[in-house]
Design goal:
The complex is a heterodimer of chains A (113) and B (114). With 113 residues, chain A is mainly β. Chain A is built from no helices and 12 strands. Chain A is globular, with a radius of gyration of 14 Å. Chain B has 114 residues and is an all-beta fold. Classes of the chains: A mainly beta (113), B mainly beta (114).
Chain lengths: 113, 114
């Protein structure tokens, strides 16, 4: 079956530091890959996505590249801000007619001023 | 803007009570989902529905049931609440079509069963 493994947290960084959160997946076929973010007290919202190999998703300074050869979708940001403090979830959708998402366990990021 | 709303942000119930969690979306989405979120476990799918009156079990359906009588509304039912059902419950919806479309999430209901 499908699975997503992401780097365990928590991750604590200082403002303007470089961020990487690793994500690898196991899936049949050609999944779509997503990063969702959950700010304190809120539901999840889509941060970025990639639907085919070598696609790069980007949003709000975050980037992730769909690497089929390494089955990875690592999240990066060059300079984090305090406002980026949140829980980040990597997820995949393997298609079909039901649009189910398989999530990683989440990584809590805290950015200190 | 797509909006997914959940009936309560916080709920406290007693063991054995019947609990209803309501979710409403306003974008005419066919597919709706219920997840529970627990620390260290991420999000786990309880049930989903791809059309009115249609439902399928997710990964952890035991102790839960669902109802979808109208397209915009998807209810999660705990027939007899237990303490191990204390959790954050998240509802989501998605339009059928391109599987690259995002799921839209509600704000969550934090349920405590005492």
């Amino acid at each position: 079956g499908n699975s997503v493994t992401q780097m365990e947290g928590p991750v604590t960084l200082s403002e303007e530091a470089f961020l990487t959160i690793n994500c690898t997946y196991t899936a049949t076929g050609y999944p779509s890959l997503f990063w969702y973010v959950q700010y304190p007290g809120e539901g999840l919202q889509l941060l970025l996505k990639a639907t085919k190999a070598d696609d790069k998703g980007s949003n709000k300074g975050f980037e992730a590249t769909y690497r089929k050869e390494t089955t990875s979708f690592h999240l990066e940001k060059g300079s984090v801000q305090v406002s980026d403090s949140a829980v980040y979830f990597c997820a995949l959708s393997s298609g079909g007619s039901n649009y189910k998402l398989t999530f990683g366990k989440g990584t809590l990021l805290t950015v200190n001023p | 803007d797509v909006k997914v709303t959940q009936s309560s942000r916080y709920l406290v119930k007693r063991t054995g009570e019947k609990v209803f969690l309501e979710c409403v979306q306003d974008m005419d989405h066919e597919n709706m989902f219920w997840y529970r979120q627990d620390p260290g476990l991420g999000l786990r799918l309880i049930y989903f529905s791809y059309d009115v009156k249609m439902k399928e079990k997710g990964d952890i359906p035991e102790g839960y049931s669902v109802s979808r009588e109208k397209k915009e509304r998807f209810s999660l039912i705990l027939e007899s609440a237990s303490t191990n059902q204390t959790s954050m419950y998240l509802c989501a919806s998605i339009l059928s079509g391109d599987r690259g479309h995002e799921q839209y999430f509600g704000p969550g209901t934090r349920l405590t069963v005492t």
